[in-house]
Amino acid sequence: MGKELASGSAGGPGGDPAGGSVGRPADGSAGGSAKRRTLAGVVVGCAVVGCAVLGGVLMVAPPGRGGPSPAPGPVARAETAVGAGTPASLPDLVALIGDREAHLRAHPGDVRSWAVLGAAYAERGERTGDARFYPKAEKALRTSLRAKPKKNVEAFDGLAALANDRHDFRAARKWGEASVAASPKRWTAYPALIDAYRGLGEFKAADKALARLVRLPKGAAAPRARVLTRAALVYRDQGQREDAAAALWDAVALASAPAERADCLVGAGELAWERGEPAESLRAFEAAVRADPDGHAALAGQGRALAALGRTPEAVSAYRAASEKRALPQYAWELGELYESLGMGGEARAEYDVVRTRVREGAAGGVNSALVAGLFEADHGDPEAAVRLLREEWERHPSAAVADALGWALHRAGQHQDALVFATKATDRQHVGAVRSAPHAYHRGMIERQLKLEGPARRHLEEALRVNPYFSPLGVPVAKEALGALGSV
User: How many Å apart are CA 213 and CA 210, to the nearest integer?
Assistant: First the structure.
């Protein structure tokens, strides 16, 4: 869901078409107040979208492609999903790629099919974590763009999505804005553009893009589930987590395919995790796996939640299954820290070696892993190298996440005063609005403790444990020990 919830709510009664039982949050977030009305019919907040607008958002087919129309089946399903920017199942993606490759061997001048193939390659790379597909995606999309350099909105959309997958948010913004400028009433560019703005920390721009998306004419409007997932991300960034949860559960109900439903459930699980609700988070992730067994993010989310619940063997199995589906450095890092928290140093070091290998593999495919690599090196490698890496990333993408990572790396490198400057950027309302992140608060509190700022340190460490008392198997015990040393007020 949006790739960067950060990067998920309490379950209640309700049927789960994917099997089992999973429902809306029981805390009133799906309808307990006038502000939090069911978001299938209304999106509230800064976008100021009314019931009449969203109630009229209709599902329409994505733009057509060149070449013969595919017969109903996996190719058609994947092409519809790729054109809509929604998740496709892995078998369907493989079928679509084979179909378009064969078609283009016979019809190499088909501009639109090159764009479809490029978008499918990018989606396959994102689904599997195989960065080798990203250069293929870029080559196909640029082939389409060379043949039709102006108003080639399919290629613009594909390049925006690819740039987001590679964490190159400036490029994603460039291509997303080009697509919107070329065809402002065509909805498919807006979700990738919102993701790009969020990656850059440009939350007001993301909010405006969401408002434009939901106000499109009916004939051009996006599927409601797609609107709601992006609304949820915007609400989360504004600190409106209950509204975000309501939007996500409405999106789950409206999702038109299992992979899309799973994507919405992953978002709900991640939001519940951020709120320190591992049991509710686990319910959502388990439902996501039932909907789409190939979903790596849901498996990793299960590992996180199971570890918090003390179900360690199951957590390890879930992390390993996630890594088999997609070789993300983050998954090996989390598993390594779980091992380290259990005193299994050898196993932890083996996973940390995997992290570095996966970062290198991603870089070979054009993936920007500076944020993950910088944070990882700050804690488990070379803090000075982490500072250099993250200073460069701050120049590219000055977001709250990068500010937090750079502040922590500076702290680990012994530059505590400079560290506090960036930790403050990552946590102050002036910079990030109402978003509250347990890891960010923990980092700031530890930096303040080092600087003998005992009152602020106590406040931020308490906040970290209040927001999510399970945020890290290594960080939580350190935070509790630091608070004990600081004493009560």
Answer: 5
Give the 3-state secondary structure of residue 49. strand
For residue 290, the 8-state DSSP code is: H
| 123 has a pLDDT exceeding 50 | yes
Between CA 208 and CA 194 the distance in angstroms is 9
Task: Say what the pTM is.
Answer: 0.81
| pLDDT, tens digit, 9 for 90 and up, residues 205-237 | 999 999 999 888 866 556 788 889 999 999 998
Range of the domain at 227: 51-66+74-272
Q: Is 43 helix (H, G, I), strand (E, B) or coil?
A: strand
Q: Given its phi and psi angles, is residue 85 left (phi above 0), alpha (psi -120 to 50 degrees) or beta?
A: left
Query: Within this chain, do residues 110 and 222 fall inside the same structural domain, yes or no?
Result: yes
CA distance 385 to 192: 31
φ, ψ dihedrals at 322, nearest 5°:
-65, -45
From residue 371, give the alpha-carbon distance in Å to each of 9, 11, 288, 394.
Answer: 27, 32, 27, 9
Tokens of 141: 């999309």
d(CA 360, CA 327): 12
Q: Which amino acid is at 307?
A: A
**What's residue 379's pLDDT?**
96
* Under 8 Å between Cβ of 371 and 391: no
Please give the average per-residue pLDDT across 63-85, as a whole number: 67
Q: How far is CA 279 from CA 60, 184, 301, in A?
A: 36, 42, 11
Residue 21 backbone phi and psi in degrees, to 5: -135, 125
Same domain? For 121 and 262 the reply is yes
Hey, what are 43's tokens?
A: 């999106």
| Alpha carbon distance 176, 46 (integer Å) | 21
Tokens of 319: 């992390």
Rounded to the nearest angstrom, the gap between the alpha carbon of residue 121 and the centroid of all alpha carbons in its chain is 19
Domain CATH code at residue 484: 1.25.40.10
Residue 406 reports pLDDT greater than 80:
yes
Share the mean pLDDT of the chain: 85
Q: Which of 307, 342, 368 lies at the terminal end of a domain, its last residue?
A: 368
Q: Residue 193: which of 178, 213, 207, 173 has the closest Cα?
A: 173
Beta bridge partners of residue 43, listed in sequence order: 49
